[in-house]
């Protein structure tokens, strides 16, 4: 899969000539940029174990992003371009090194802008002995075609479903089409991957985890997201692992968009109550005290 001359890897479909080195809407050009590759201990327990688990999730953070989330906790890499240019061969070596380090899975964070490189690296790593489940960690803003292109490569989709309101998606992520795009992508993920499968120790080997981060002042939209997820579960008949998150911290430009505080106990309780009412309880609900900055690792090119 070569880099495109007319890029449509993400829903922006900006048409950049990436093969000639032109940067797309996401910021990625003809190079592969990675900001960090290390064991990570702050994913859902079925991926990374407990916080003191010596193994954790083998997480690779890719530079740039197709979304423009004003509150992005990874903004140095998603918005500011922090990262190191490497080859697909080097990426394959990183995958294998994480496996040797004891990673429970290979966790690719915001990788779609580099899909051709990722597929090449996965092919090479698997030929050299990679056996870890591959987790695709995404903001949910994916085309159905990109999801399909990862059939046979991705074992676990770790996807966000951020908004139900197009207006809110436009305001906070410059993506009014986000709700429709995320729903279509999630439907394909569920169809493609199927119901959750765990190993004997309770670690997810295959399936879909759907995250939703509750935002301050937006509990009504969060409840609408949960209703969408419940509907998708009914319509597809495929169970998934819901993960309701309270860890919002006002990073980056959040305060400029009315998100200059953390979520209140009252707001989060309203969201949790809706999840319980809808039966979205076979997963994770963060404690209100989880709004801490330690979830964001230093993007210091470790392991790259």
Task: Give an account of the 3D structure.
- This protein has 304 residues and is an alpha/beta fold.
- Helices cover 32% and strands 17% of the residues.
- The protein has nine helices and ten strands.
- Strands 1, 2, 3, 4, 5, 6, 7, 8, 9 and 10 form a ten-stranded mixed sheet that branches.
- Strand 9, helix 9 and strand 10 form a beta-alpha-beta unit.
- Helix 3 (88-100) crosses helix 4 and helix 8 (219-236) packs parallel to helix 9 (265-278).
- The longest helix is centred in the C-terminal third of the chain and has 18 residues, at 219-236.
- It is globular and about 50 Å long.
- 47% of the residues are buried.
- The mean pLDDT is 95.
Following the backbone from N to C, one meets helices and strands in this order, namely: EHEHEHEHEHEHHEEHEHE
Largest sheet properties: 10 strands, mixed
Number of helical stretches of at least 4 residues: 9
| Mean pLDDT, all residues | 95
Q: How much helix is in the residues?
A: 25-40%
Q: Let me know the number of strands.
A: 10
Radius of gyration: 18 Å
What structural category do the secondary elements indicate? alpha/beta
Strand content: 15-25%
Whole-Å distance between the termini? 23 Å
């Amino acid at each position: 899969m070569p880099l495109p001359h007319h890029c449509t890897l993400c829903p922006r479909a900006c048409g950049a000539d990436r093969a000639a080195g032109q940067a797309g809407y996401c910021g990625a050009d003809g190079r592969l940029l990675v900001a960090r590759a290390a064991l990570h201990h702050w994913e859902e327990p079925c991926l990374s174990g407990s916080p003191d688990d010596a193994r954790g999730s083998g997480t690779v953070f890719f530079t740039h992003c197709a979304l423009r989330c004003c509150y992005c906790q990874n903004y140095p890499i998603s918005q500011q371009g922090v990262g190191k240019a490497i080859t697909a061969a080097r990426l394959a070596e990183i995958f294998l090194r994480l496996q040797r380090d004891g990673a429970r899975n290979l966790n690719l964070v915001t990788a779609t802008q580099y899909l051709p490189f990722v597929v090449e690296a996965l092919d090479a790593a698997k030929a050299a002995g990679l056996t870890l489940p591959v987790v695709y960690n995404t903001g949910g803003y994916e085309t159905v075609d990109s999801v399909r292109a990862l059939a046979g490569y991705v074992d676990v989709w770790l996807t966000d479903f951020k908004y139900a309101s197009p207006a809110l998606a436009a305001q906070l992520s410059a993506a009014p089409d986000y709700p429709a795009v995320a729903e279509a992508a999630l439907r394909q993920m569920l169809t493609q991957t199927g119901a959750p499968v765990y190993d004997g120790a309770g670690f997810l080997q295959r399936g879909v985890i759907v995250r939703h981060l509750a935002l301050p002042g937006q509990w009504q939209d969060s409840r609408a997201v949960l209703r969408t997820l419940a509907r998708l579960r009914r319509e597809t008949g495929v169970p998934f692992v819901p993960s309701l998150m309270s860890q919002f911290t006002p990073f980056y430009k959040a305060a400029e968009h009315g998100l200059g505080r953390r979520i209140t106990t009252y707001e989060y309780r309203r969201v949790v109550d809706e999840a319980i009412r809808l039966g979205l309880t076979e997963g994770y609900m963060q404690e209100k005290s989880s709004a801490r900055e330690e979830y964001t690792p230093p993007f210091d090119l470790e392991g790259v």
